[in-house]
User: Fold this.
Amino acid sequence: MQPVVQLINFSKTYQTGEVEVKAVRGVNLTVQPGEFVAIMGASGSGKSTVMNTLGCLDRPTGGQCLLDGVDTGTLDRDELADLRNQRLGFVFQGFNLLSRTSALENVELPLMYLRPNLGSRLQRERAQNSLALVGLADRADHHPNQLSGGQQQRVAIARALVNQPRLLLADEPTGNLDTQTSIEIMGIFQQLNRQGMTIIMVTHELDIANYSLRQVVMRDGRIVSDQPIKNRLDATAELLRLRQEQHAIQLAP
Assistant:
């Protein structure tokens, strides 16, 4: 089975004036279809550089980045844009929704860049189905300011899924959310992963990483640990536990 992602001796060096900053140093990483990988590390560890490269927003200085066997370092800007739109879905810490458009219109946005165009009817159906996947079919006509933070992130996830990507990239997807909402979002990711979606998530929160299947830890531009999660958290069980705790607090004298 062909990997969804392969980083082969990948390195990235930035030039800041006369100073060279080695952000990533000879990283090798393979992600197979259906994996759910969390990448962790302190600020400056290189995890964001890896994510940007996987998202076709940056290019390797050395080595290779392969997505579905395609060497992204050989593609021009238009080819990279097509690859991003056709094979990748993005979820960010900031929801990045257009404030004056409805949830449905926000989800439809990536479809407008598809070639050939799907047509307005099919675009609308795809967006509606994507919102239904994240439990927001009844909020399709709501604007972002009419939605909670968790609902806005669900819209962002629906937008990431609308092009039926091969890989979902999530950068600190729970960074702006409270504990309960964070678990709910992890529940959506776990459901998508059970359905076969490949997910790579950057997070600095160990408890959030424990909802994934595999944890990759970076330090100083290198991978220092790459292990399966031994005691994986289940979002459904964690939500039940949290609600029981909240109920017990409410009943306490």
The radius of gyration is 19 Å.
